[in-house]
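User: Could you check the structure of this?
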Amino acid sequence: MNFQIRDAITANVQGDSANEFRDTVEDAISRGEEHLLPGLGVFLEKWWKASSAAEQEAFTEKLSKAFQS
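Assistant: Sure, the predicted structure tokens are below.
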């Protein structure tokens, strides 16, 4: 992913509240448009870097289960 995309996405959401982030994520998912996926990827990357090892483990366990069905 191009760093300019990361920077643009970060600038667009900087200062957003938790509710605004929820709305952004839910909107991106409900639309199902592939051009929104890089934004969700940037969100995941930021979350991953800020998470503890236990949080990362819990997330990857849930993700693994979600893709087993």
